[in-house]
Specification:
Layout lengths: L24 E2 L1 E3 L2 E3 L6 E5 L6 E6 L3 H19 L4 H17 L1 H12 L3 H22 L3 H4 L5 E3 L2 E5 L5 H14 L3 E5 L6 H12 L7 E3 L4 H9 L5 E5 L2 H11 L5 E5 L5 E4 L5 H12 L12 E5 L3 H13 L19 H16 L3 E4 L14 E4 L6 H4 L6 E7 L2 H9 L6 E5 L3 H10 L4 E4 L18 E2 L4 H6 L2 E3 L1
The structure holds 1,4-dihydronicotinamide adenine dinucleotide and magnesium ion.
1,4-dihydronicotinamide adenine dinucleotide binds next to helix 8, helix 9 and helix 12.
């Protein structure tokens, strides 16, 4: 549904769903085959745009987890760890190419199941996921060059647990480097967004990858916990909430399991008075309204230099008028559906808290569809550093705006958070960019842009945003024993 704002009404342009095939009910992908869950329990995957059931998904229990890990262990010892690296690489290339061939199907499934605008799943998520496989396929037979004069060996079986904000992209971030380094995998997608990972399982099956090298099992947090606690898992890779990250870290303490945790964020987007303002406003919009704000590195705290704050806020409000909120499958849509009812409730709770704290709210004056889970782009001014909405991760299209006068002040404010995932700096001055990038405690700092990703550049956090890096050369070492 297009925005009600008369100036910006477009005719709907819906992406077709005719070319996709989905099963009514999904089993688990273990040892190269689709097998029934021992639990015999299923849950529903809901389309957040219309609240309709898309498919039923298996809820894997402990026995299923045991089976999947056993399959991964067998594949590791008997096949994958013995295979010449260049042969391993060929399989990863094949997966990448098959994903590319089926990219339209993957994009539509992602938008249906996760609520993200088709423009994003089509132009960002799927191409980046393919590129991740291509990138790591290239490394498979060059690991000796990546780590010269070191002895390298794979870790074994990797348990990988991913969230719902970038379902297929996170699956690619996890699976591709694990395979390139000679590990085998048990992956669990998030309960609200399993479908693209299950489609990836079909692709993996078509690729002829040896049985058991990648196993994809579905379920809730209990399934994830069973993977984490299984004694025969050598490595845990997790992306999700800081709360669950802490639970995982506690449960593997004292074991030899290696871990990478990519957790929450409350990233600062900083605009100086010499910045190109129209570009910066686009960067603000991209930083927080992109993917409904379901982005761990979302630029959710805006800092504007005092002299230009009124102008920036005016421009931002004007830009918000033209954002189209609605059906994720509509090619005009800028802001799609919130991933789940639970997440919408969390976001609305924070909006209430913000108002109660005395902050001034402004929301896009768009009409929201009557069905589905939607939240209009929202900004809060008149907030304090101590406000709950400034301190806590909201994970929705909600931005807080503060002002600053000096460089030191903004560094201090930007770093005043338990998180440290990303930051953005907008200025015409190169020296200022270099100064800030060294002083901001954030894993990624973008300059005059925001939310740009590339498989060759490492990604990860400081402090409560987690540890370990994914992507690039750093992403390889997370799956290797180096001596
Ligand atoms: P979550 O952290 O509970 O879920 C992420 C994944 O972990 C899912 O696959 C889930 O099934 C699994 N999981 C849950 N409990 C587990 C456990 N004890 N052991 C192992 N795996 C477990 O995130 P949730 O509840 O969906 O979202 C809550 C909040 O977390 C959001 O509002 C947002 O603030 C934050 N979040 C941050 C993400 C990020 O990328 N940094 C991604 C998703 C959520
Ligand atoms: Mg949860």
């Amino acid at each position: 549904m297009a925005s009600k704002n008369k100036n910006w009404e477009y005719a709907p342009s819906l992406e077709s769903t005719e070319h996709i095939t989905l099963k009514k009910r999904y089993d688990l992908f273990i040892n190269g085959k689709w097998v029934k869950s021992a639990s015999n329990k299923y849950f529903k995957s809901i389309n957040p745009n219309d609240e309709k059931v898309i498919a039923e998904i298996s809820h894997a229990n402990q026995r299923d987890v045991n089976r999947a890990i056993e399959a991964a262990r067998n594949a590791y010892t008997k096949v994958w760890s013995k295979m010449p690296a260049n042969e391993r690489g060929k399989y990863i290339y094949r997966i990448a190419r098959l994903m590319q061939e089926r990219s339209r199907e993957l994009a539509v499934i992602e938008s249906l199941d996760a609520g993200k605008p088709i423009r994003e799943s089509r132009d960002i998520d799927i191409p980046l996921a393919c590129n991740h496989f291509f990138y790591y396929a290239g490394w498979a037979d060059k690991l000796d060059y990546a780590f010269p004069n070191r002895q390298i060996s794979p870790l074994g079986v990797a348990g990988q647990i991913i969230p719902w904000n970038f379902p297929i992209l996170m699956a690619a971030w996890k699976i591709a480097p694990a395979l390139a380094t000679g590990n085998t995998v048990v992956l669990k997608p998030a309960e609200t967004t399993s479908l693209s990972a299950l489609k990836l399982a079909e692709i993996i099956q078509d690729s002829g990858l040896p049985e058991g090298v990648v196993n994809i099992i579905t379920g809730y947090g209990d399934t994830g916990a069973a993977i984490v606690n299984h004694p025969d898992v050598n490595k845990i890779a997790f992306t999700g909430s800081t709360g669950v990250g802490k639970i995982i870290q506690k449960s593997i303490a004292g074991s030899e399991k290696k871990a990478t945790l990519e957790l929450g964020g409350k990233s600062a987007n900083i605009i100086f008075d010499d910045a190109p303002l129209d570009q910066a406003v686009e960067g603000i919009v991209n930083g927080i309204f992109f993917n409904q704000g379901h982005v761990c590195c979302a630029g959710s705290r805006l800092f504007v230099q005092e002299g230009i704050s009124e102008k920036v806020i005016r421009k931002l409000k004007h830009r918000m008028k033209s954002l189209v909120v609605g059906n994720p499958l509509d090619k005009n849509t800028d802001v799609g559906a919130i991933n789940s009812k639970e997440q919408l409730d969390i976001i609305n709770k924070y909006i209430k808290i913000g108002k109660k704290e005395g902050a001034e709210i402004h929301q896009s004056a768009c009409s929201l569809p009557s069905k589905g889970y939607f939240c209009p782009p929202t900004i809060f001014t008149n907030v304090a550093q101590s406000s709950v909405i400034v301190q806590e991760e909201i994970f929705g299209p909600v931005l807080t705006i503060q002002t600053f006068r000096t460089v030191d002040e903004v560094i201090q404010k930007a770093n005043n958070t338990p998180y440290g995932l990303a930051a953005g700096v907008w200025t015409d001055k190169g020296s200022r960019i270099f100064n800030l990038t060294t002083k901001l405690k954030a894993g990624v700092v973008w300059a005059n842009t925001y939310n740009k990703f590339d498989p060759s550049s490492p990604f990860g956090g400081y402090k409560e945003s987690g540890f370990g890096r994914e992507g690039g050369l750093h992403g390889l070492s997370a799956y290797l024993k180096l001596t």
